[in-house]
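Input (structure):
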């Protein structure tokens, strides 16, 4: 699944091509995404000017003078820029044709993503209104995590992957951040001290910032906004390295399932 760095990479990739552009037309080939593509999208978006493209968690917000397009890439989606028309492929479900002649093409083989329309402030939409703070923003602090974790028995990994606690810390980057912070994924969130949450916040910021800078993780299903994959996958310490030596101490990394997600950690370095 595209995680926060991949979504931010997509935003940065398409922003220079779309910001300030007028939408000439919208073609929806298949409305059957996670939620059906609404008729309002093809009614209000054509003729509107894209004023900005923002990211909230894993959602992309296309703000226009007519409303806002809310897009999520789902499990396998991509949104990329075409300099000129190309024959649509099987899973190319939505095209946004710009007056410049460029096309924003949404591809989603599994159709778990969405393309929705909001006439109100998109941050008040039910999908976004209860999201936690951005992990790279000023509201994400050790004090905040410490307060939210008191009395919580849920695993630390599940805690930081809860979008109501903090947005955008998906499975890959949760594994990596916990390794850098020296914290075991299965530890109860309520049993972690404030100083250790300071280390975790720093690690989450470090991992996500590095991934954003390097273009997101190279996943099989992900293609960046410029049509190029990311490169961060090469630098992962533990994710997908179960059974291999720990890059710190040489201990064999343990791989298990936690909350139905692949979880890799070092028994020696993480406690």
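Output (sequence):
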């Amino acid at each position: 699944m595209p995680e926060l760095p991949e979504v931010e990479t997509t935003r940065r990739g398409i922003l220079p091509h779309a910001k300030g552009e007028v939408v000439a037309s919208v073609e929806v080939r298949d409305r059957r995404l996670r939620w059906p593509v609404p008729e309002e999208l093809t009614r209000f978006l054509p003729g509107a000017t894209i004023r900005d493209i923002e990211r909230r968690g894993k959602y992309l917000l296309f703000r226009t003078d007519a409303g806002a397009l809310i897009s999520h890439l789902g499990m396998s989606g991509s949104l990329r820029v075409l300099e000129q028309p190309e024959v649509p492929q099987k899973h190319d479900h939505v095209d946004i044709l710009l007056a410049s002649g460029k096309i924003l093409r949404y591809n989603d083989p599994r159709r778990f993503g969405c393309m929705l329309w909001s006439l109100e402030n998109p941050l008040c939409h039910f999908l976004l209104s209860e999201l936690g703070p951005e992990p790279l923003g000023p509201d994400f602090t050790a004090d905040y995590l410490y307060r939210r974790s008191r009395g919580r028995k849920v695993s630390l990994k599940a805690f930081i992957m809860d979008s109501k606690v903090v947005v955008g810390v998906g499975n890959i980057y949760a594994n990596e951040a916990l390794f850098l912070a020296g914290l075991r994924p299965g530890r109860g969130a309520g049993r972690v001290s404030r100083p250790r949450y300071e280390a975790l916040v720093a690690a989450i910021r470090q991992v996500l910032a590095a991934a954003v800078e390097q273009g997101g993780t190279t996943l099989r299903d992900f293609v960046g906004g410029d049509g190029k994959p990311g490169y961060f996958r090469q630098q992962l310490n533990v994710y997908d390295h179960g059974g291999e030596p720990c890059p710190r101490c040489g201990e064999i990394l343990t791989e298990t399932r936690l909350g139905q997600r692949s979880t890799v950690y070092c028994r020696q370095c993480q406690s």
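Notes: The chain has two domains: 4-124, 142-265. The chain has a mean pLDDT of 93.
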